[in-house]
Amino acid sequence: MDKYKRYERLAAIVKIFSENPNTLINLEYFMNFFGIAKSTASEDIDILKNVIEKFNFGKLITLPGAGGGVKYIPISDIKSYLPFVEEIKEKLKDPSRIIPGGFLYTADLIYSPNIVTKIGEILVLPFLDKEIDAIVTVETKGIPIALMCARTLNVPLVIIRKDSRVTEGSFVSINYISGSQRHIRSMSLARRSLQKGSKVLLIDDFMKAGGTIKGMMELMEEFDAEVVGAGVMISTEKPENKLVDNYISVFVLKNMEEDKNIIDIEISDWILKG
Amino acid sequence: MDKYKRYERLAAIVKIFSENPNTLINLEYFMNFFGIAKSTASEDIDILKNVIEKFNFGKLITLPGAGGGVKYIPISDIKSYLPFVEEIKEKLKDPSRIIPGGFLYTADLIYSPNIVTKIGEILVLPFLDKEIDAIVTVETKGIPIALMCARTLNVPLVIIRKDSRVTEGSFVSINYISGSQRHIRSMSLARRSLQKGSKVLLIDDFMKAGGTIKGMMELMEEFDAEVVGAGVMISTEKPENKLVDNYISVFVLKNMEEDKNIIDIEISDWILKG
Question: Where does the Phosphoribosyltransferase domain lie (chains A, B) (predicted)?
């Protein structure tokens, strides 16, 4: 007789997959964990596949063969995120978010674990069929978003520093021009923090002219890294001509009028169109 | 007849709790979600309670009454983390982590989603019975750890900046003395990022003399915040007299000899003693 009942095993497997998204787990693991036969483990996975799809919790993918196994993709279609992005859009429209100087206060959202988890899931969704070795961001506000992207894809996070007080050995620095403010800034990345030739996804919280993302792209060249894409939580509508063109955003800030207390922000088209 | 089979509901509930740790969910939520009677929802929770404890996945806590419900604490006893901390300790002992100047390279661990998730869980474990309103950290390397602490407790993260390029409205700055290097540094926090009178847990990646944590404590006074405790991933054994005394760490760095390629690091006593 099996040590655990089927519903116990299924509940446990859901928990294991939830904690290890995008990680290939072979059937032997479950056979040993529960002390069950291969056929039973296989049946469990089949049942769970249906459950996960029924509740729109993402999907289980089976890779056949000797090096095969099952992995859990914790995100489903973009449509299931619509109520969430609508809710965040309304929060972003609150005029009290306008900070003198034309800034938008978003820290409360980005630093809220539940919200940033979902933002991270949305930003990696378009790249699920791409091979990605690391998520690269630049300090500071992009870090929580980037970590949740990294968690969803089960790849390491890489953090570019804005100063050169890097205490991680030799590093590469570049100067870049902040596109909207035309200031010269610098960013640095420790040599050992990114393997040569990695495929990377760039993540940040906010993009105006795209100077920071462009700087990140230049820095990536120093590491022979291939930039698969770039994603930000909010991009501005203007300037129309950005310094980069291959990027996605969750929200588009169309207009912000400090004196009139107006924030005009929309959900990006690719999300609305599904 | 119920729309979903019991094993389907149980698997779905596990997923919902996993995504919403430390969040009170009432039975009505599950009754509506699955279209089931209160007694059935109640039975489901009871079954799940046993499953979660059987597999050492943490625990489900039922709060009775009108404002009651069930919440999931995703961490169990500290003993279950021992194999993990042993594994990380071995990784930390690798002499190639020694960086000239007496620094220890840890970014690969802190920026790895699976590892930092568990470090975050361990650091909040001693504070589970305390009321905590926010996790406070200082940029940069503490952020991933602090976010995972915040996620486990389902409270907001607050990030103190090391420069004053704060674009989040009015802010409070303090100067503090980096304890080991005796340099004057400054840290800043936007007024609106932390409510007056909050109860906070301070989190950072590394602590030598404790100057940074002490600076954070001083800054918290400016917000009338109550510091419930402090936790770091690694503390050093020396100096013995730290600038703060109320802190916990996961690892203690006893000795590091650059010329001899020796890193002597141990798991903290409170973890070993369980």
Answer: 113-262
